[in-house]
Specification:
By secondary structure, the chain is of the alpha+beta class. The protein folds into 2 domains: 137 residues, Chitinase A, domain 3, CATH 3.10.50.40; 128 residues, Chitinase A, domain 3. Strands 1, 2, 3, 4, 5, 6 and 7 form a 7-stranded antiparallel sheet that branches. Strands 8, 9, 10, 13, 14, 15 and 16 form a 7-stranded antiparallel sheet that branches. A hairpin with a 5-residue loop joins strand 8 and strand 9. The protein is elongated, with a radius of gyration of 23 Å. The chain starts with a helix and ends in a 49-residue tail after the last strand.
């Protein structure tokens, strides 16, 4: 975290004075701050980095590892002029820090970005990063990433457990770190994977400060009232990856008719990307739920000739909580891509 703050501060200084920069063939300005490492990056390497990407001069943060999970990106040694940090990464070594300034006008001219509510004419995209490690094969990189994920997950679960303890909330912990508080008991029938459950729910953020106080508990979705314009009970099949993992784990502990509160660490929810604009990255969640029914899963639609499944079934509800696995982190380059700009969180 201290390293990232130092890099960000240095990036701000360099951006303001615009000195000691070099330029690539595409006009990209950059500086490499040499570390103590001697391992040069090469084609095929996957590098582990901490990084922050901002739009200047407004200092709008597009992406940051923020002292949480690092990113893993491939080293591109091709001769293409991408006008982003890839042009510089191949010049660096493990332990180095990079400051790279891309011109939005150049990116638009090369069809690598477009002007929108976030990217304006004359803007710059400032990327600051520190290269932590390099892997020559995918297996070692995956192993390291899994270790980082486990450390972050344990940290999140511990913070959530501390919060519940301070509040005097008695909750059952699942194997992976979801906490379930039973408010009222139901019948003896509990759901299992493969069964369809029907629920009422209210989802809210549970962002907690260092003192264990909730600083953002905003409700982001509910079918318990008319605020979000859908009050029908929600049905889905457990174990079919139709919702976030933590929600499914929590519901498996509640019987038919039961009411409860499910507390979910971010890595079992929407993870580092979040679900903007309603859910920021790394946001723990709280769901108030009532299990209305447990039933056999509906039969799957018949297959079309050739094996293609039926598409666009109007009877299939879309879960507002469904999200790709948050453990699949994004390449920070996608944050400055042409047509994938998101509102800053």
């Amino acid at each position: 975290m201290k390293q990232m703050l130092a890099i960000a501060a240095l990036a701000g200084i360099m951006a303001s004075c615009n000195t000691n920069y070099e330029k690539t063939a595409s006009g990209l300005t950059y500086r490499i701050i040499k570390g103590n490492g001697t391992q040069k990056l090469k084609a095929g390497d996957i590098v582990k980095i901490n990084a922050t990407i901002k739009i200047t001069p407004r200092d709008t943060v597009l992406f940051t590892t923020g002292g949480r999970l690092p990113e893993y990106v491939p080293v591109d040694t091709s001769s293409r002029l991408s006008h982003d940090y890839n042009e510089v990464l191949k010049l660096a070594s493990v332990g180095d820090s990079l400051i790279v300034v891309s011109q939005v006008d150049t990116l638009v001219k090369r069809n690598l970005a477009q002007y929108n509510g976030m990217l304006k004419r004359g803007d710059q995209i400032l990327t600051s990063m520190r290269i932590l490690k390099a892997f020559s094969n995918r297996e070692d990189q995956v192993k390291d990433q899994q270790q980082e994920m486990e450390k972050e997950r344990n940290k999140e679960v511990s913070e959530l457990a501390d919060y519940l303890k301070k509040k005097g909330i008695k909750a059952q912990k699942t194997e992976n770190g979801v906490f379930v508080e039973q408010v009222s008991a139901g019948s003896a029938e509990k759901p299992v994977n493969g069964k369809q459950v029907t629920v009422n729910y209210r989802g809210s953020l549970l962002i907690i400060d260092k003192n264990g106080q909730v600083v953002n508990g905003k409700v982001f979705d509910s079918n318990m009232d008319t605020t979000f314009h859908h009050v029908q009970p929600f049905s889905f099949v457990l174990g079919a990856n139709q919702t976030i993992r933590g929600w499914e784990e929590g519901l498996l502990t509640l019987s038919k008719g039961a009411k409860g509160n499910i507390y979910i660490p971010s890595l079992l929810g929407y993870g580092p990307p979040g679900a903007p604009p309603a859910i920021p990255g790394y946001a723990p969640l709280k769901f108030e739920v009532q299990v209305l029914d447990i039933a056999n899963a509906p039969a799957r639609p018949a297959q079309m000739p050739g094996g293609a499944g039926m598409q666009g079934d109007p009877g299939q509800q879309q879960d507002p909580r469904s999200q790709q696995d948050p453990r699949q982190q994004q390449d920070p380059r996608q944050q400055q891509g042409a047509n994938q700009q998101q509102s800053p969180r």
